[in-house]
Amino acid sequence: MQALAAVDVLYFSAGRATATTAGVLGLVGLVVGGLALARPRGRFGSGRLGPVLALGAGVVGMALGAVVVATSDSGIGTGNGRGGAYVALVVGLVAVVLGGLALTRSRRVAG
Q1: Confidence band for 43, pLDDT divided at 50, 70 and 90
Q2: How many CB atoms neighbour CB 109 within 10 A?
């Protein structure tokens, strides 16, 4: 059986692209959730748009990261996006937590 060679540094594989997309979605969710939580009367915190957007982006980022982790055939550092997928899972989880906290706050204020 042949060992799989690492992908070239400049080559942007499908795994890297998916992990990057997942990370960016998680980061967007993290920023929006943080803004909705920090500024309850601001643009993202006054209604439910910010918290729901943070939850959605975080969940999608986590799902894409999980797909890359499940389908990658080798370890971190081989160019298949597994390291970025782990980062996307963590960032997406933080976005979901922040979005959930902001949504809970918006329900408490509205009710």
Answers
A1: low
A2: 11
